[in-house]
Write a structure and sequence with these properties.
single chain, 6 strands, 47% helix
């Protein structure tokens, strides 16, 4: 046990520098207290000019003993400021995988578990949504917040294995064949960003389609195909998540939160909140 702990700790030290190389400079680290078997943190990194890698995700696997291994996930994305990258770094320690039979884990995977492996893949729209949900994860108590984080992180691991094993394929529904075009998928992903930026004043589907220059019907079908949610479901999920965060941390009234997030009335907000969370907004007020 002691040997395994030492090995796992060695993988945690300066992981970004090791993965991205000398051109990366770590500016800030914010660890998440998630789970004893999972290490996660947000890291802000800067790069030398002409050395900026593209946005991408990576899965690294390190065998630490017979039948034991450590898996690391890295998601690198750029915010508005050039040369600065936001990284979500997640490490699944050997104890995490001991919950599952080894034969189940290694069966039919696109890589071996007895040798060092590095797999790079594209950050799909579902992963982007999960990363945003992880960053904004907040619940009624510290424990339920941690459970919510573990849920998002486990979903990210599942999605990463799917992305590696089965790269993007066109939705079999004829109306979704347009998603084979990168520019069309980018428009759907842009719609996600527009929705997130306008939670206080949600756009209609017509307004959103004009904003991203995409046919309404295609936008609705493409959004559902890539995110698994309708535009309304996705918007409401983000608004309720933001409402929980505001009610729990900012000391605002229910009325303040409803107005800030653009709900037509307190009644409408309370009904939507209870439907999504099973509790009244006032139950989160301190």
């Amino acid at each position: 046990m002691a040997v395994k702990t030492v090995i796992a700790k060695a993988y945690q030290e300066a992981p970004i520098e090791r993965v991205l190389g000398q051109q990366a400079r770590v500016l800030q680290r914010l660890p998440l207290s998630v789970h004893s078997h999972i290490h996660a943190e947000y890291i802000q990194v800067s790069f030398d000019e002409q050395a900026w890698p593209e946005e991408h995700a990576r899965l690294n696997l390190f065998p630490v003993a017979d039948g034991q291994f450590c898996v690391q996930l890295m998601y690198l994305q750029y915010p508005a400021q050039p040369g600065m990258a936001d990284i979500c770094w997640i490490e699944f320690k050997p104890a995490f995988f001991e919950q599952f039979p080894l034969s189940m884990i290694s069966k039919e995977q696109p890589f071996r578990f007895d040798q060092v492996t590095e797999q790079q893949f594209t950050i799909c729209s579902q992963s982007q949504a999960l990363l945003q949900q992880l960053k904004n994860a907040t619940a009624l108590t510290s424990f339920t917040t941690s459970l919510l984080q573990v849920e998002h992180i486990t979903h990210l691991l599942r999605r990463s294995l799917e992305c590696i094993a089965l790269p993007f394929t066109v939705c079999p529904v004829p109306a979704c064949r347009f998603l084979a075009n990168d520019s069309e998928r980018d428009k759907v992903m842009e719609a996600q960003r527009v929705i997130t930026a306008n939670l206080d004043n949600p756009l209609t589907i017509k307004e959103l389609s004009r904003k991203v220059a995409m046919n309404e019907c295609y936008l609705k079908k493409g959004f559902k195909a890539l995110t698994g949610k309708t535009i309304h479901e996705y918007t409401q999920e983000l608004r309720i998540s933001k409402a929980k965060e505001m009610l729990s941390k900012e000391g605002l009234s229910v009325s303040d939160v409803a107005n800030t997030l653009g709900f037509s009335s307190i009644s409408h907000f309370s009904t939507s909140f209870k439907k999504a969370t099973g509790m009244k907004p006032c139950e989160l007020l301190h």
